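Proteins fold reproducibly. Take a sample protein:
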Amino acid sequence: MAQDIKYTVFQGRAGDHNDLAIPGAQAVGEAFAERTGVTPFVVGTPAPSLNVGWKEELDAARHDLQQMQTRFEDVMSKGAVSIAATSRCAVSLATLPIIAKHHPQVCILWFDAHADLNIPTATTTGYLGGMALAAPLGIWDSGLGMGLKPDQIVLVGQRDLDPFEQDLIDREGIRHIRPGGDLTNDLRNAIGDRSTYVHLDCDVLEPGIVPTDYVLEGGLSLDDLHACSKVIAAQRVIGLEIAEFQNAWEPGGVSVSPAALIESLQPFFNADRRAD
């Protein structure tokens, strides 16, 4: 029996440094619609970035993040697969607790140049997105829920870890698949027979492939991402969230299409699932 796919686009604030990710998420949603013929469900209202500390950012984003949780609660309660454009990584503060609630044993694949495992008392930047995975793990309380355990997390592609994050990874034995090496085999072994939920921060990719907020050398190629997608799609996929795609290389710049990025994720759009 075909499994429904529910498409969602987040359009609210989420600790934005600039105003490029909200239209970036909209562009990804338009690419979903072009591929599937389905118009995504939109959560939140665009607003200018604040670029302030994590507490102020979280307070400003809370209403829209709670609405995102309502959307995910509806999607997960129906047993559907979620594919979402989530603008910034901080949206995971909302999505992951709902995933954990409905799928308590799910494997979270965190594709990102960063681990996003900082906490308010350890962060050196005060950036909300840098704490996006730590709160669902219960390492700090965002007010949006928890529920994940360290052995559910597989970090993929990280190459910029703060000392606090590295200590946490080592202490908790969090699996970390670095760029290079036998990426697909390492990923296959890490997943095992578990169902998966995928977070994709576009800065996991090599700079110059798509516009992102952070630029860090040594990332994945689109071919790498496609190969990983094939491995992941061989097991049950609970969902995919695409974060940090910016619609231009710089403010006021020419719009950039996410088509190549979406094409590299083609295995997630399987014909045996029914889009809705």
Notes: The first strand starts at residue 3 and ends at 10. The CA atoms of residues 27 and 257 lie 7 Å apart. The beta strands are 3-10, 41-43, 81-87, 107-111, 153-156, 175-177, 196-201, 237-243, 273-275. The chain is about 30% helix and 15% strand.
